[in-house]
Specification:
alpha+beta, Phosphatase 2c, domain 1, 6-stranded antiparallel β-sheet, 5-stranded antiparallel β-sheet, 64% helix, globular
Length: 584
């Protein structure tokens, strides 16, 4: 009887954890840690692994996907070994969600399919419907829309399907038909899902259905109907504070206004779209930094706790000591890798976002292949009242040292562009050189930093469309009127050994309309590869650009990426590889 009472008490503890996880994922993580310590002291294998599965979901909710995978796989291994298919399916469901966040959709699909078989073995009909829906969603992501429809239709065959789940499934069928371009088939599905969502107060599905219908009717040039559904979607967004869903609604409203000739209204809506998108980006950046700080504190506390426990353990055998040391090394290496991955998120946050690039340039592509996780290459964008300024830089070093130098470079560029004399690329480079030298040699002592960067700068006059380029130690290619021109670089770098006087050259290109401009780091020409294992060199890069320059930007990016991969072959990548191209 005592054992049964303990089991009931344990289930209540986990139920409390589920409520906390829904309300406050960070507090849930601390709660999971407390339960885990209690289970280690007196829990059985089943309870320990139930806590592991719950802990994995806490890690997932807090964005630590590596730990989520590790802990969840441990729990899965146990439940599979005892043929507990119900709990094994729960683990697989969590793993599928983690693979989805990581963008590994093939693994998500494999995990979903295994989960489905376990749901069926465990007789979990509600879980089976949910997993069928997940499989359909995964097939949609992979572009196999017919297969997605097959699994969504299977969900609807269950009489036990709840109204809310049915609303999701019917909406997903509508999305699938939309992706296939079958608007006539998609419309009734969205209409049905909206009604189901209304009946169950499922506001996010109601909003999403209206948003898709608005897109369909806009495509069909039925502007009144498009606006009706935009009104419905926006009302839900504002009432329920789904702020992240607002930008596409505002953008589509602006397009409707443009179509009807209301250019003033369209301009105002685009301004609102840009303002709220920028605010969401800032909020996301802040939240990401907070998540990184939280994850770092968690890792640090766990490491301190682990070390404290290990110091109190008696080392009884030499074998155990060696095994323990190996485990420490492995975990420290993983900790270092995790820290560098966090650094990558921070570095990525400093680069211009895709929507800023799209706003500044008609078409563009960016190729970035760091040698290590973080990169010494970076690109930078500034939109002022008069000029749009784009730069691609290759800092001294790669990996963590190069990434640190890139942060210095971005900071100095942000300061340099505010100088009143920075009204052309050459002047900007001169100011940047002074800022970099000062930043790296603050004491002006006898020992000078030799760090710096090679950088190309493009400046576009927003009113006249006139383009000007200056480049420190990197050539730039310009495709115009069917020709590929090479803009020669000034053979001096930014920073490096101190030189009293550095002058850079402006290259005027005239009107940028119709031009495509290519900037790249030396990681491409300096890469060994090909049949002879030699460097590609600048001539090879020029030939590569010449072979693709008449294609769309999307195809150019794809072919250049494929060429670099093929060229490297089995050769080690020597440096960070970056290229940015913009078309006007």
């Amino acid at each position: 009887m005592l054992k049964e009472e303990l089991h009931i008490a344990f289930e209540k503890v986990l139920e409390s954890g589920e409520e906390i996880l829904r309300e406050d994922p960070r507090r849930a993580f601390a709660y999971a840690q407390e339960i885990a310590e209690q289970m280690e002291a007196g829990g059985d294998e089943f309870q320990i692994n139930k806590v592991r599965e719950f802990t994995a979901r806490c890690y997932q909710s807090n964005g630590n996907y590596h730990r989520a995978l590790q802990v969840c796989l441990e729990a899965l291994q146990y439940f599979e070994s005892v043929k507990d298919y119900s709990n094994a399916a729960m683990c697989l469901n969590t793993l599928g969600a983690v693979y989805n966040y990581l963008g590994d959709y093939e693994k998500r699909l494999q995990t979903n399919l295994t989960c489905l078989s376990y749901r069926r073995k465990g007789g979990d009909e509600a879980g089976e419907i949910s997993t069928l829906s997940n499989i359909g969603d995964t097939y949609n992501t992979l572009g196999n829309h017919d297969k997605a429809l097959e699994y969504f239709q299977l969900c609807l065959q269950f009489n036990s399907i709840s109204p809310r789940t049915k609303a999701i499934v019917v909406h997903n069928i509508g999305e699938t038909e939309f992706f296939k371009g079958n608007y006539s088939a998609a419309i009734p599905q969205f209409e049905e899902s909206i009604q189901l969502a209304k009946n169950t107060s499922y506001y996010i599905i109601e909003e999403a259905g209206n948003a898709f219908l608005a897109r369909i009717y806009f495509t069909e040039k039925n502007i009144p109907k498009a606006i009706t559904h935009l009104d419905a979607a926006e009302k839900i967004i504002r009432d329920k504070k789904y702020t992240g869903e607002l930008p596409p609604i505002l953008k589509l409203r602006a397009q409707c206004a443009e179509y009807t000739g209301d250019h003033a209204g369209a301009t105002e809506l685009y301004k609102q779209y840009i303002t709220i998108t920028e605010q969401i980006r800032k909020d996301n950046d802040t939240r990401s930094m907070q998540d990184l700080q939280f994850a770092y504190r968690v890792e640090k506390l766990q490491e301190e706790n682990r070390i404290h426990k290990e110091k109190n353990q008696a080392l009884r055998q030499a074998y155990l000591k060696i095994a323990q040391q190996n485990r420490l090394i492995e975990e420290k290496n993983r900790s270092i890798t995790d820290s560098i991955n966090y650094a990558l998120k921070i570095q990525t946050a400093l680069l211009p976002s895709p929507w800023r690039m799209a706003r500044a340039f008609q078409e563009y592509f960016i190729i970035s292949q760091p040698r290590d996780i973080v990169s010494g290459d970076f690109y930078w964008l500034h939109e002022g009242d008069k000029y749009i300024t784009l730069a691609l830089a290759d800092c001294t070093g790669h990996g963590v040292p190069g990434a640190l130098m890139s942060i210095v470079g971005i900071d100095c560029l942000n300061i340099a562009i505010t100088d009143e004399s920075a009204n052309d690329p050459a002047s900007l480079l001169k100011i940047l050189n002074s800022k970099i030298v000062s930043a790296l040699n603050p004491e002006k002592g006898s020992v000078q930093s030799t760090d710096g960067m090679d950088i190309s700068v493009l400046m576009i006059d927003k009113h006249s469309g006139h383009a000007t380029i200056a480049s420190a130690n990197r050539p730039v290619y310009v495709h115009t009127s069917g020709e590929l021109l090479e803009i020669k670089q000034d053979k001096i770098s930014i920073g490096g050994y101190y030189v009293d006087y550095k002058e850079f050259t402006n290259h005027s290109l005239g009107s940028a309309k119709g031009m495509t401009i290519y900037m790249f780091s030396d990681g491409i020409p300096d890469q060994f590869g090909g049949e002879r294992g030699k460097k590609l060199k600048s001539k090879g890069v020029r030939n590569l650009v010449s072979s693709v320059m008449d294609q769309s930007m999307e195809i150019q990016e794809q072919r250049i990426n494929e060429f670099i991969h093929s060229w490297k072959g089995n050769q080690e990548q020597l440096d960070d590889i970056s290229m940015i191209a913009v078309r006007f």
